[in-house]
Amino acid sequence: MDASVAVVGPGAIGTVVAAALHDVGRTPLLFGRTARDHLELVDASGRIVVPGPVQTDPRAVTDPVDVVLLAVKATQVPACAPWLAVLCRPGTVVCVLQNGVEQVRSLAPHVAGADVVPSVVWFPAETQHDGTVWLRATPRLTLPDGPGTGALLRALDGTRVEVDVAQDFTSVAWRKLLQNAVAGLMVLTGRRAGMFARDDLSRLAHDYLRECLLVARAEGADLGDDVPDALVEQFRGSPADMGTSILADRIAGNPLEWDVRNGVVQRLGAAHGIPTPVSDVLVPLLAAASDGPG
C-alpha cells in the first residue's frame, strides 16, 4: 500500500512535486492558505492537472499522514505550524523543500516528533500570471543519507523528480546556498539573470561568493576554490530572462527569505570570526527591502 502523502504549500515547488506524484497515480493531499480546485503544471511535454481541492482549514484534518512535503518559504514556517501539528506524528517523515542550511533546526519545534529531512531543491519552475507553473527542465532533489530518506525515495519512486542521495549533503547544501545567496543581488537591481553579463556586477558577485565560500568551509563544506567562478559563469550563461524566487517575492511585495539565504552567511561568519564585508552591506539592504520600514 502506498504511503499517504501531503503537500503543504502548493506554489511553484509544491505544484511540481504534486504533479509528479499525480502523474504516477499517487495524488497527494493538498494544503495551503488559498483555496483552489486544482493545480496545473506545464512543461515541454505538455500539461498535468492535479485535482484538488487545496484545503485551507487545519481543523478539517482528522488523521496524520506518512509523508509531508513542505514546500513553503522559510518566512512562512510559523504560519504552517497548525498544519504540521495535525499532519505529523512520530513516524511521519517531513521533507523540507525550501532554501537554506538550517531546515532541521527551524522545523523541529513544529513537527510533533516527526523525522525532518532537509533537501536541496533543483526545480527550475516559475508561477505564471494565470496561476499555472512552468517547469523549464527536469526537477531534481538531493537528500541526505539518513533516517527518513528511504520513505521519501519510495514515495517519489518512478516520478519525474530525479532524487539523489548525497553522502556529503553538507557540501551540496552549501553550494546551493552560495547560488541562492548571490541571486539576492537581483533583488537590489530589480533585474533578472541577464544583469550578470556586466563585468562590474560579475566581479561583485565573485567577491561575495568568495566570502560565502569561507563561511561554508568553516561549517564543514568541502568546496573548491573554483566554485565562485563556476557559479558566476552559470549565471552569465543562463537565459537573460531567468528569475529567482526571491526576486519574484520582491516584485510581489512579499516578505523575502533574506535571512536563510544571505543573513546566515553574515551570522555564521561572525560566529567563526570570518570578516564578511559584502554581507555587511548586502544583508541590511535585503532586510530593508523585505521588512522596511518606509
Compact description:
By secondary structure, this protein is α/β, with parallel strands linked by helices. Helices cover 42% and strands 18% of the residues.
Tell me what the structure shows.
- The strands form 3 sheets. A 6-stranded parallel β-sheet has the order 5-2-1-6-7-8, with helices on both faces. It has a 4-stranded mixed β-sheet with strand order 4-3-11-10, with helices on one face. A 3-stranded mixed β-sheet has the order 9-12-13, with helices on both faces.
- Strand 1 (5-8), helix 1 and strand 2 form a beta-alpha-beta unit.
- The protein folds into 2 domains: 5-166, Rossmann fold (3-Layer(aba) Sandwich), CATH 3.40.50.720; 170-291, N-(1-d-carboxylethyl)-l-norvaline Dehydrogenase, domain 2 (Orthogonal Bundle).
- 42% of the residues are buried.
- The protein has helices at residues 12-23, 77-87, 103-107, 149-156, 169-183, 185-189, 199-218, 227-236, 245-252, 258-272, 277-291; strands spanning 5-8, 29-31, 38-43, 46-51, 54-55, 67-70, 93-96, 115-118, 120-122, 125-127, 133-135, 140-144, 162-166.
- The protein is globular.
- The mean pLDDT is 96.
- Helix 7 (199-218) runs antiparallel to helix 8 and helix 7 (199-218) packs across helix 10 (258-272).
- It has 294 residues and is an alpha/beta fold.
